[in-house]
């Protein structure tokens, strides 16, 4: 667990960002840094500490989201951080794994890890933080994917996990309306990130960053939900590269 930064003189709203050490999660965290106290989630203490040190008000949540079993890494980390968070104004689930391969070729473990990290861990973190989210009438953003709307060949495990994440988000939204908690399912198309490099390498194609969304465009889509008035719920946002065709 990283040491928190000195508390600001005026209490800030709190944002928890899983996958906050790179890609979309890191970009959203940096976008919120001027106004929020950040809790940066990541698997590596070194990477979490580096991000925390770069932000004006932040602390770390170091856990392996693949280890969701009772007494495991995630449960232990949540037990430390939850008592320090009486309110959570924004919870961004940006952590995720990509396992590519056909159903015939993919190992069972690829399916298990995909569902655990992309779905089960999201449920576990959200459940632990629900009292703080309810107290703040907060917002949950699940960073999903175009793969949570349309399934494609050689990505069955990933798509299945993202469809399941959309179902989790929809259920949570309906359950928590009476508590004032809003839930946004954010579906970016292909984004210029490390994960995109992994996918293009798997496909054996040439990487062309201009064909993909910039991370900042996804941040602006997230901001649509974050900046909506307390009377509004942005239930789903789908954002695609300009030249994208189904």
Automatic annotation (TrEMBL):
Please tell me whether the keyword Oxidoreductase is annotated for this protein.
yes
Record keywords? Oxidoreductase
Q: Where is the Ketoreductase domain?
A: 13-194
The record's listing under InterPro entries reads: KR_dom, NAD(P)-bd_dom_sf, Sc_DH/Rdtase_CS, SDR_fam
| Family, similarity comment | Belongs to the short-chain dehydrogenases/reductases (SDR) family.
One Pfam match, by short name? adh_short
Task: Report what the protein is called.
Answer: SDR family oxidoreductase
Signal peptide stretch: none
């Amino acid at each position: 667990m990283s040491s928190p930064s000195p508390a600001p003189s005026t209490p800030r709203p709190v944002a928890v960002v899983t996958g906050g050490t790179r890609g979309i999660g890191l970009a959203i965290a940096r976008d919120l840094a001027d106004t929020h106290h950040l809790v940066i989630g990541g698997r590596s203490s070194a990477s979490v500490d580096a991000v925390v040190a770069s932000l004006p008000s932040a602390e770390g949540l170091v856990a392996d989201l693949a280890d969701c079993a009772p007494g495991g890494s995630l449960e232990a980390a949540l037990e430390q951080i939850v008592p320090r968070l009486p309110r959570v104004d924004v919870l961004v689930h940006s952590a995720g794994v990509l396992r590519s391969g056909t159903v015939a070729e993919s190992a069972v473990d690829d399916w298990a890890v995909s569902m655990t990290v992309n779905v089960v861990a999201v449920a576990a973190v959200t459940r632990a933080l629900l009292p703080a989210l309810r107290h703040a009438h907060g917002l949950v953003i699940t960073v999903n994917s175009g793969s949570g709307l349309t399934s494609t060949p050689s990505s069955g495990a990933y798509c299945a996990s993202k469809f399941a994440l959309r179902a989790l988000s929809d259920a949570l939204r309906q359950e928590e309306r009476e508590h004032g908690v809003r839930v946004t399912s954010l579906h970016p198309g292909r984004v210029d990130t490390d994960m995109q490099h992994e996918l293009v390498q798997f496909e054996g194609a040439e990487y062309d960053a201009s064909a993909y969304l910039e991370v900042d465009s996804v941040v602006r889509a997230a901001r649509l939900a974050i900046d909506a008035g307390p009377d509004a719920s942005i239930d789903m946002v789908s954002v695609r590269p300009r030249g994208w065709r189904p």
